[in-house]
Amino acid sequence: MSYSLSEAATACGVHMGTIRQSIKTGRLSGTKDAFGQWRIEPAELHRVYPYPYVVELAVDTDKLNVELSRRMLHFHKSRNIQVRHGRRIIRETQIYFRWCFSDSATARAFIEQFGGELNI
């Protein structure tokens, strides 16, 4: 089953505009359905965006505190992985920060250390 633009964006933790731009530039292939909406196959999406494990952490403020940010950077460096975050999202007045990981073990280790929920 293929993804819509919004489903694809959620699945890999990026903005819909990023997915749309990737299609426009040819980096990602997609087709339009009978209603003119983009459809993206999961294998194609994860070829370009190989970070299917998305962790969302609910926060009370608009920014992460400095100490927490440092600990999160250390987490990534200690595992020799690129930091894939920065997306702040708001759903129904709740602010979340989102991190993306290529494997479930790393995503779960992140959750154990910092909290949050895994959205696959």
Can you describe what's shown?
The protein is α+β, with helices and mostly antiparallel strands and 120 residues long. It folds into 2 domains: 5-48, no CATH class; 53-119, Alpha-Beta Plaits, CATH 3.30.70. It has 5 helices and 6 strands; from the N terminus they run ααββαβαββαβ. It has helices at residues 5-12, 16-25, 42-48, 66-78, 104-114; strands at 31-32, 38-39, 53-59, 85-91, 94-101, 117-119. The strands form 2 sheets. A 4-stranded antiparallel sheet has the order 4-5-3-6, with helices on both faces. A hairpin with a 2-residue loop joins strand 4 (85-91) and strand 5 (94-101). Helix 1 (5-12) packs across helix 2 (16-25). The chain is globular. The mean pLDDT is 87.
Question: What is the element string, with H for helices and E for strands?
Answer: HHEEHEHEEHE
CATH class of the largest domain: Alpha Beta
Report helical residue fraction.
40-55%
Number-wise, the strands total: 6
**Quaternary class:** single chain
Summarize the structure.
The chain is α+β, with helices and mostly antiparallel strands and 120 residues long. Helices cover 41% and strands 24% of the residues.
Question: Features of this protein?
Answer:
single chain, about 120 residues, alpha+beta, Alpha-Beta Plaits, 2 domains, four-stranded antiparallel β-sheet, 5 helices, 6 strands
